[in-house]
Amino acid sequence: MDFRYYVACYRIYVACYIKRRRFPIEPVSRDALGLQIKIVAKLLKQAVSDKIASLDLTSSQSFVLGYLCYHAQQGEAVYPRDIEKHFDFTHPTVSGLLQRMEAKGFVRMEPSAEDRRCKRIAVTDRAMQVNQQVLEQLDAAERLMIRDFSAEEVDQLHNLFARMIHNLSPTTDEGGINP
Questions:
Q1: What's the sign of the alpha-carbon dihedral 36, 39, 45, 48?
Q2: Distance of alpha carbon 150 from its chain centroid, rounded?
Q3: What would you measure as the largest C-alpha separation in the chain, in angstroms?
Q4: What are the Cα distances from residue 45, in Å, to 51, 64, 111?
Q5: Could you give the CA distance from residue 141 to residue 139 in angstroms, rounded to a whole number?
């Protein structure tokens, strides 16, 4: 076939495509709320990751470690499904995260006394020691993030984020991304 045939087909395709689209796609503005939230989350994750990298932890591992250490201090048993629910992580994500933390010596997986099918997560002495350093780094990053906010603005920000989470949560009647 001739090259001109392909060019003609392409022109027809483009013309049909343009007619189907009634509104041009506009670029996402830096003022878009979703983009701003993503930028803040990325910057916070970078700030935390940079500071805790020397502790042999990622930011996700540090949040999970804090959760585990808190519950260990309370004398409460924690299972992988608890982490899935609390952090809204998928089962494969939690499994991988715990495997890496176990390989680094932060946790041990032990059979549950109540149900042998379940594995209870136990924190090690190393985890308890490192957790204090992580908490200090997280606190410093949060203080930096809100350093020029008033107490009222911080409270308002907490309330607004709680409402956004509720609105987007698939478990609410009106909320959810996929109605």
A1: negative
A2: 26
A3: 77
A4: 10, 14, 33
A5: 5
Cβ-Cβ contacts under 8 Å for 80 (sequence gap 6 or more) = 91, 94, 95, 98, 119, 121
Task: Give the whole-angstrom CA distance, residue 36 versus residue 171.
Answer: 25
Confidence class for position 21, pLDDT limits 50, 70, 90:
low
Which stretches of 26-76 are DSSP H helices?
Answer: 33-52, 59-73
Buried-exposed string 110-124: b where 16+ CB fall within 10 A, e elsewhere: eeeeeeeeeebbebb
Q: Compute the distance between CA of residue 109 and CA of residue 125 in angstroms, rounded to an integer.
A: 14
Are 128 and 91 in contact, with CB atoms under 8 Å apart? Answer: no
Give the span between the Cα atoms of 52 and 35, in whole angstroms: 26
pLDDT digits (tens, 9 = 90+) for 121-154: 999 999 999 999 988 888 888 999 999 999 999 9
Amino acid 112 reads S
Check: CB of residue 136 under 8 Å from CB of residue 124: no
